[in-house]
Amino acid sequence: MTTEIENKKYQSILYEMATPGVAKIVLNRPDALNAFDGKMQQEVTQALRIAKDAAEVKVVVITGAGRAFCAGQDLVASPASLTDIENWLRTMYRPMLQALDTLGKPSLAMVNGVAAGAGMALAIACDFRVASTKAKFITAFAKIGLVPDSGMSYNLPRLVGVGRAQEMLSLGRDLTADEAINWGLVTRVAAPEELEARTLEMANYLANSPLLAYKMTRSMLHQSLDLSLDEALTLEEKNQGIAGSSHDFHEGIAAFQTKRAPVFKGE
Ligand code: T3D
Predict the structure, then answer these.
(1) Given this structure, which CATH class describes domain 211-258?
(2) Distance between CA atoms of 167 and 164, rounded to whole angstroms?
């Protein structure tokens, strides 16, 4: 039986179930290093919204076709993106970043090659990054006279700290995969031939994890920098109350007591 995910036709992306529970979005304009052409942002947004509603999807992986992850905004094919940038960002990038933020399921960027500009911004907006040893992280904005966008000014300092974010954004410091893991920008590094297997290993682990707890944990971490300790303790108490009455908690306890592996439902 084909799913809604596999039935729909796209121009700038591919969308498929990689393994049971794991949907894969492939940015698919390899001749332009998968640069965003407008259609691509719209299709990624649509794919993420479908993934959010699809019970069969537990985790989403985003990657690029060919040798790049994504070279950011297409600087040739989308004239509108160069003449009214503010509107372009609002109408093309914002919905995509918001769809990712409200996915409610774990997201992984499988960074197969260079990730530049908004391409790097998309990778760091995902919950986790598995990078090929061939990957490179290039903020790119300042090289063409721009400030960071697509959530990069928000996500980059949260991952690497303000000082290192400033170094990447203003001193043109690009990172290899090995540097990126040392800076905390990526979660794992893998040889190119092992990248897919290592990513799916992590995705499958997440797909079988207690996803209600994942969702609340992600939200708590994202809020934490803006909360006082008192507010964080209150949020922990409230969310632990919810997690503590979930199916998955009872299953986790039963599995521990009977010395078997838990089967979580995300409920
Ligand atoms: O404008 C707005 O609306 C605001 C939004 C901004 C968001 C942003 O993302 S701003 C940043 C935009 N991106 C860049 O500035 C990166 C530009 N690309 C590069 O610096 C380099 O291509 C890379 C470092 C990414 C890779 O270098 P390399 O040497 O591996 O490949 P290459 O030879 O430069 O590129 C290969 C082909 O891809 C080439 O086409 P060709 O000559 O084979 O026909 C190149 O023109 C094309 N390409 C690469 N990046 C883009 C692109 N085509 C269109 N747009 C691109 N961004």
Answers:
(1) mainly alpha
(2) 5
